[in-house]
Design brief:
- The complex is a heterodimer of chains A (260) and B (252).
- Chain A is an alpha/beta fold.
- Chain A has helices at residues 18-31, 47-51, 62-75, 78-95, 117-134, 146-152, 168-184, 203-212, 224-232, 244-257; strands at residues 7-12, 37-40, 97-98, 103-106, 138-141, 156-164, 186-197, 216-221.
- Chain A has ten helices and eight strands.
- In chain A, strands 3-4-2-5-1-6-7-8 form an eight-stranded mixed beta sheet, sandwiched between helices.
- Classes of the chains: A alpha/beta (260), B alpha/beta (252).
Chain lengths: 260, 252
């Protein structure tokens, strides 16, 4: 397995299936015996957390910790500041929801207006220290956008996966995301995954992808069994190993980590 | 990318062709009593009547260039090579002059390169030697007093090494200087090296800018904290960061 791929961020246009993709990616990692840290960076709804059947974490999200830091800073009391300085590592560690197979860190929704750069710097430093020690693979569902990821979690990503569906607009968004990634974060590799593929790509679509310069990492076909499971609210755990989604994502994991 | 071996070969050929040269190999430069060296050792005021001699001129400015690399084995630490005559033997008033610094370091940051250039601008760090600057042109003025004491290029060269070492301490592994006087071919060669290393330095600078830009998403005001309403809160958080850093240092 490639040891140099540690941090993977999944991003893309709204509705292309980032959270489900991240979910299945994490499943494959678990199957390989990896205990991944998943970062749910959806500021509005914690879809990933719901998919994983975990309880509400609004009190343990990074955003709630940020609020706590800002509150202490507003009060400006030396004792409290010292307490935060002493305990910030354990506060962040405790905010990570740990299960036997994976761990989850929820970013939460920013409420306070203003960037509070210093709080971001503090959080980023602690988070990267904590997670770099404890986890082999960090998988980010980057719904919030790369800017937010950079602000609160980390500035360096090993593999940036941009998800797109079979539409020109989605590929255009993928291109904008790649451009914005160049500006905001340090990533080492980038790859495009076409999700919910319903037909063979036509030349125009392929030309559009080529224009972006983003290499194709993989394709995930449209999966009726997945759609049905989603419609009926069934557990996605029941999705069979030979379902097109599971098979395709297994291939992508092989491409990512050379595990074939 | 400049190739140090090629540069050395060319300089060595020219040195032998020129015939007049000196090489000072020193592990520890001797302390020269009459030369005061260090930050702000004098007020840096050189009146016209005090100037005894000039190295370069506004028409033929000095060439000062730096070549840095990470590999230290190809640099003769503390060696000063002079190609041409030494100061007491030079007959003309404004000889053409250039100096090439070969430096090995694996830890110089992009801002250190600019600092390196600044360190060797002699405004008040070698008493009696003043770097006169007009625009981007510069040349050294040497006081009559130093000339009387038989100032040599060895003295200026070791003083410059001393200044760089003082400023960068352990960051620099080895440093060597090649000084050229009245040799147009070599001075043109130094100018070419300067151009190439300048491009490399710009590249390094651009890399730094890129890094800074990548930090900008952190801030809604492009790091202009002065216009931010939350500055006081951030200052308090910075205090928390300082406390945490202090604790980490103590643990080490």
């Amino acid at each position: 397995m490639k040891k140099n791929i540690r941090t993977i961020a999944v991003t893309g246009k709204g509705g292309v299936g980032k959270t489900l993709f991240t979910y299945f990616l994490s499943k494959q990692l678990i199957e390989l015996g990896i205990h991944p840290l998943l970062i749910d960076a959806d500021p509005t709804m914690s879809h990933l957390q719901n998919l994983l059947n975990l309880t509400d974490s609004s009190n343990t999200s990074i955003e709630s910790i940020r609020k706590r830091i800002i509150k202490v800073a507003i009060q400006g009391e030396e004792v409290e500041k010292q307490r935060i300085a002493e305990n910030i590592v354990s506060i962040i560690s405790q905010s990570i929801i740990k299960t036997e197979q994976f761990s989850l860190l929820v970013m939460g929704q920013p409420e306070k207006k203003g960037c509070f750069c210093a709080s971001n710097a503090l959080l980023r430093d602690v988070i990267s220290n904590v997670i770099s020690q404890d986890y082999d693979v960090i998988l980010i569902d980057a719904e919030a956008g790369l800017e937010q990821i950079h602000r609160q979690v980390m500035g360096e990503i090993d593999y940036l996966i941009i998800l797109s569906d079979y539409s020109m607009r989605s590929v255009e968004t993928a291109n904008s995301i790649a451009n914005s990634a160049d500006k905001f974060i340090d990533y080492r590799k980038i790859g495009l995954v076409i999700n919910k593929k319903m037909a063979e790509f036509d030349n125009k679509f392929l030309a559009k992808i080529e224009e972006t310069g983003i290499p194709i990492l993989g394709e995930v076909p449209f999966d009726e069994s997945l759609m049905k499971a989603e419609q009926s609210g069934e557990s996605l755990n029941l999705l069979k190993n030979n379902s097109p989604t599971v098979k395709a994502i297994k291939n992508i994991v092989h491409n990512l980590f050379d595990t074939a | 990318m400049v190739n140090l071996q090629e540069i050395r070969t060319f300089i060595e050929e020219q040195k032998l062709k020129n015939g007049i040269y000196s090489v000072w190999n020193e592990r520890k430069p001797e302390k020269v009593e009459f030369l005061k060296v260090g930050k702000r050792v004098w007020d840096g005021v050189m009146l016209k009547e005090d100037v005894g001699f000039e190295l370069g001129s506004p028409d033929f400015p000095m060439v000062k260039t730096f070549l840095t690399q990470t590999e230290s084995s190809s640099i003769h630490n503390m060696r000063i090579t002079l190609i041409g005559q030494d100061i007491p033997d030079i007959l003309e008033t404004n000889p053409e002059f250039g100096i090439l610094f070969l430096i090995s370091s694996s830890s110089l940051s992009p801002s250190d390169y600019r600092k390196l250039e600044r360190t060797t601008i002699l405004s008040n760090s070698i008493e009696g030697v003043f770097e006169k600057q007009v625009g981007r042109k510069s040349w050294y003025q040497i006081s009559t007093e130093l000339l009387k004491r038989k100032l040599s290029f060895y003295h200026i060269g070791s003083a410059l090494i001393q200044l760089i070492k003082q400023e960068f301490h352990e960051k620099i592994d080895a440093i060597e200087e090649i000084i050229v006087v009245n040799n147009n071919l070599l001075l043109d060669y130094f100018r070419e090296i300067h151009k190439v290393s300048r491009i490399e330095s710009i590249k390094r600078f651009q890399e730094k800018i890129k890094t800074i830009q990548k930090l900008r998403p952190d801030c809604d005001f492009e790091n202009e904290c002065n216009v931010c309403d939350n500055r006081e809160i951030c200052d308090q958080i910075r205090d928390v960061i300082a406390k945490r850093n202090e604790m980490r240092r103590m643990k080490k």
